[in-house]
Amino acid sequence: MEGHVEAPPPRLTAVIIEPDRELVSFVYVARTHGLPRAFIPGIHPVIPLTATVDGGPALDYVAPPVKPLP
Description:
- There is one protein chain.
- The chain has one domain (11-60).
- The chain has strands spanning 11-18, 23-29, 50-51, 59-60.
- The protein has no helices and 4 strands.
- By secondary structure, it is mainly β.
- Helices cover 0% and strands 27% of the residues.
């Protein structure tokens, strides 16, 4: 974030078993020590976070689309 780099350890958070598809998925998360400021999807159109996994290409975080309130 803004030039700050962290390498947090991955933590297993879920194991998804789909017998009908003969598929097992493992979901990992890596938590940072906190951001220098809060970013809220819908208020901030761009949230400048990027991650790399196992030395692969950089993956930019894309905020989900937000529906406007009626």
